[in-house]
From TrEMBL:
Residues 80-285 form the Fumarylacetoacetase-like C-terminal domain. SUPFAM superfamilies: FAH. It comes from the Bacteria. One of its GO terms (molecular function) is metal ion binding. This is Fumarylacetoacetate hydrolase family protein. Gene3D superfamilies: Fumarylacetoacetase-like, C-terminal domain (3.90.850.10). Keywords: Hydrolase, Metal-binding. Belongs to the FAH family.
């Protein structure tokens, strides 16, 4: 099942015009009314353990055309977004760093995200705006000290992520955060594909394209720290909650390490495609 968050122009979908539902046969199955009073948004649906009911409700829920809604980031309001740096050996090599025993983690904030089809925003203070295609893991069940063997049972599903990075700000200090969470720089979508359709997150192909040209390509079995270990490691630090997002790292080929560097510029179109999930596509604009 493909799950989306969206907003309607009429404002009748639910909370301030925001709704959620499933994508089926090119239509949005609007589940907002069915779960009124029990779940506000996809995060609420997951927290209430209503995913199986959502599958059953799809048959009778009203439908909307995809072009009648504005998609939102898959989870618009996660409690936390934990990003993983340097999780593919080719990316480690191109940065001149060394593989670490434990994953390099940093945070993003929800306000830095845009949805499929929305513009990614190059900040006015930099022209070094880089693409990073990544697999996003969305947590479906709360867990603390989750074992690797249990980890995938805590996953609701997977989505595409473009972890747009403002490279000069990223390198202001040894801390990555300043370049990783500018407003409108991270894209998350187009939907969440539920975990029952992707039993093995290490069996996917990821490709990033800039203006149609392939700039990154990998398979997720090449992650240094695979998804189950990421979940185990992060859940040891603090509880993972339904709707939390783990952005699992980008492969080699980033624009900053090309000669000459290849930056995203206003007017560009960037795509992240992951097999069995779909294509996340965004135009690039300059900050007004």
């Amino acid at each position: 099942m493909k799950l989306v968050s969206f907003r309607t122009e009429s404002g009748k979908a639910g909370n301030g015009g925001q709704g959620f539902g499933a994508v089926e046969d090119g239509m949005v199955v609007d589940l907002t009314a069915h779960f009124a009073g029990r779940a506000t948004g996809l995060r609420g649906l997951l927290a209430a353990g209503l995913l199986d009911e959502a599958r059953r409700a799809v048959a009778d829920a009203p439908r909307r055309t995809l072009d009648s809604v504005a998609l939102l980031p898959v989870i618009p309001d996660p409690d936390k977004i934990v990003c993983v740096g340097l999780n593919y050996r080719d990316h480690v090599a191109e940065t001149g760093r060394t593989v670490t025993e434990n994953p390099a983690l940093f945070a993003r904030f929800a306000g830095s995200q845009v949805a499929h089809g929305q513009p990614m925003v190059r900040p006015r203070v930099s022209d070094r705006f880089d693409y990073e295609g990544e697999l996003a893991v969305v947590i479906g069940k709360e867990g603390r000290h989750v074992t690797e063997a249990q980890a995938l049972s805590h996953v609701a599903g997977y989505a595409c992520y473009n972890e747009g990075s403002v490279r000069d700000w990223q390198l202001h200090t040894s801390q990555f955060l300043p370049g990783k969470t500018f407003a409108g720089t991270g894209a998350f979508g187009p939907w969440l594909v539920t975990a029952d359709e992707i039993p093995d997150p290490a069996a996917l192909t990821l490709e990033t394209r800039l203006n149609g040209e392939v700039v990154q390509r990998t398979t997720t079995d090449l992650m240094i720290t695979p998804v189950p270990r990421l979940i185990a490691y992060i859940s040891t630090i603090l509880p993972l909650l339904p709707g939390d997002v783990i952005v699992s790292g980008t492969p080699g080929g980033v624009g900053a390490k090309r000669n000459p560097p290849l930056w995203m510029r206003p007017g560009d179109t960037v795509e992240v495609e992951i097999s069995r999930i779909g294509v996340l596509r965004n135009p690039v604009v300059a900050e007004e």
